[in-house]
Amino acid sequence: MLRRKIYDSILEWKKAKNGTCLLIKGARQVGKTYIIRKFGEDNYKNTVYINFDIDEDLKSAFDGNLNVDHITMLLSGLRTGFKFEEGSTLLILDEIQNCPRARTALKAFAVDGRYDVIASGSLLGVNLKKVPSFPVGYETDMTLRPLDFEEFVWGMGLDEKVIEEVKSCISEKTPLSAPLMKAMTDLFDQYMIIGGMPKAVTTFIEKKDFNLAADVVKNILSVTKSDIATYSSASDRVKTRACLDSIPAQLTKTNKKFVYADVMEGNNPSTRKYAGNLLWLYEAGLIEYCYNLKQPTFPLESNMFIDSFKVYMSDTGMLMNMYPVETRRSILLKHPSVNKGGVTENVVADAIAASGRRLYYMHNGRREIDFIVQLGEEIAAMEVKSGKDRASRTLDNMAKEKGPITRFIKLEDGDIRVDENGVEHYPLFATGFIDSMCKKE
């Protein structure tokens, strides 16, 4: 079993008894079904599981009266194995986007309170716009992402004491031992190649074969493109697919700002005709926006350019499989001739997003910083260096100035240190433990 952080969050929801149903969102194949069913097995006498992708006949239980007794009576009649016992039953409504009336019924279950309900779906933002009424105030929302780096190393069997040692060194800004540095770097390279899709990670853990793990990710990409065809309108399918396919090239550019003109030749980008297609990918959990800041001051979200942004894949393993296989080999062999800056920047973006932080960068003509990150009560400028050239004059100059940015961080292939300019140097894998970079109170 892959250990997931969201399990503890679900347990907190159960203990809180706050009168809400739980709604877990996330892209396909991130492990929603597995973790919810596992939680049910561990914590309830009875688990009633419905998958609206498969159990077409059970949708009829939600067609009429949404009274809880009426619904549970119909469900028990349609499936003899379903048992509803007050205080000891979890009802799981999986792929709820395919039964909008079930989503509406969550309010009734929350008010009734006799049964805990967890709903989940892969395309909730995309496919539930037709729901007649959302149960506002009666849902607790959580999002499950692909495995982050810490969850990945848990799966790879790394001892918890070793992880705590790494976090301590990051927090104290002290170098790691050479063996630990190499072990963590190798694990991060593997994570960058495989990504965090649970089935791909499990395949690699069991088979130790990058090609088999890549085959899993390629299949997920294929399903993703099928979703675009199924859930997009006929006029949007080509444009949404073109937006997805353009991301690897967009991230290979020196200036990684997303440019509509680069999506498809022969189209006028001035109409922003692809904005809705990008939003589809975001709501499906496939991409993350990283917004350009006018100025790096609190609150960051009030200082962003809404129409100037970079786009990253939510799983770097998926991005990796959209590049030629040479990119994967160059990471394994640490070969400098292949441009892997886009992949490296993407895995850092994923780590920041997985920590619950929104993604920002700064490019104002004079200065360009890969990421602007809030670390506790401080604002940090963060540069990502994936090649031999580790120079960062912008970061060095900013460190000498007094301004709203008070932390200056360079992520590179090297150990932890602080240089004479006050710039903090960390290995790339340190972003997998980004909370350890916050100053201790």
Provide an overview of this structure.
InterPro entries: AAA_14, DUF4143, P-loop_NTPase. It holds the Pfam family DUF4143. Residues 226-387 form the DUF4143 domain. With 441 residues, this protein is of the alpha/beta class. It has 2 domains: 6-143, P-loop containing nucleotide triphosphate hydrolases (Rossmann fold), CATH 3.40.50; 149-437, no CATH class. Helices cover 41% and strands 18% of the residues. It has helices at 6-16, 32-43, 68-78, 100-112, 124-127, 149-155, 160-172, 178-194, 198-207, 210-231, 234-252, 275-283, 316-320, 325-332, 341-354, 393-399; strands at residues 21-25, 46-51, 89-94, 116-121, 139-143, 287-293, 304-313, 359-363, 368-369, 371-375, 378-384, 405-412, 417-418, 424-427. The chain has a 5-stranded parallel beta sheet with strand order 2-3-4-1-5, sandwiched between helices. The longest helix has 22 residues, at 210-231. It is globular and about 70 Å long.
| Shape call | globular
Report how far apart the termini are: 35 Å
Structural domain tally: 2
Number of strands: 14
Major sheet attributes: 5 strands, parallel
Strand content: 15-25%
Number of helices: 16
Structural class comes to alpha/beta
Q: Can you tell me the residue ranges where pLDDT is under 50 for at least 5 consecutive residues?
A: none
Strand order of the largest sheet: 2-3-4-1-5
Mean of residue pLDDT? 92
Portion of residues within helices: 40-55%
H-E order: HEHEHEHEHEHHHHHHHEEHHHEEEEHEEE
Radius of gyration: 23 Å
